[in-house]
Design brief:
alpha+beta; SH3 type barrels; six-stranded antiparallel beta sheet; 5 helices; 22 strands; globular
Length: 320
Amino acid sequence: MTEVNQVEIEMNHSDKLQSRIFRVAKNLINLYAKPDSSSEVVTQAFLNAKLVVESEDNGFFYVVGADRYHGWADIRHLEVYTTSVSEASSKSICSYVTVSALLADVFFASEEDSELATRLVYSTSVELADVATAGAFQAICLPGAKHGWIRTTDLRLDPPKTLNSWSAADSGARKSIIKNLGVKVLAHAERFIGVPYLWGGCSPFGIDCSGLVQVCYQMEGLSLLRDADIQYTDRRFVKVEPGKSLSESEFQAGDLLVFGSQSAITHIGIASDDGRFIHASGRMANFGTYYNACSDKSWSEIYLGAVRLSEDAALSITSA
């Protein structure tokens, strides 16, 4: 059974799921702290993401995603979930692929000068439509039984393979897998350099620290929960370089570094293996996603620790 199926089963058999399952019908939506679009944005959800509805108020659904994160979504941005978007237009079920461009243009026709239908963001899962490819374009299913055209170069057509051999790997092989995973996660994070900071953001339009971590690990097939403190205490990860300062530690690429005070973790970043870390920061001096040196005193003073995927981890998000 795949990790995605395990999550779906957990959602479908939730004791609260007398509720309905919806999918996001826009390229990107906000989830709010209250049933009010002027309230705090707590996270975001991408096109096709499944959300379980737990209650309704003032034109909003209180929803929970596969990462167990709750928020209020505008009802107008959702549609009832069906097994396949393509079923609604009597097309056969096709495979899902992932958007690999930071921003991918979706056109109404398979031509560069066609009108834009929308723009999809990095890591969005889209379903290929049962329509013949056209030159450099692939047809994808869109909400409302429609389809659009996206450049093939903006898609990753095969699922990530980084963790494929995990279940059969011994300790030595898993160390190698973890190291490779970290390098790839870091490479994803570097794609976001220059993207502005946005509290609750998860996309190239704006992103926060834990959103960056979540998206970059997701792109390599490992689903993480949301928020820095939850990611740091994920049971699939173990502490590394305990007792050492930020500048003394010898991190691997992909290690997760947390910051704050002894009473609260407030920030998270992704280590490189060259004495730096990359993060999405709201500090006005360096606003956005960028690298910092581990020797930077302002970050060293609030450094709390680091974690890395454990060699003994069960990878499903249900083990987080």
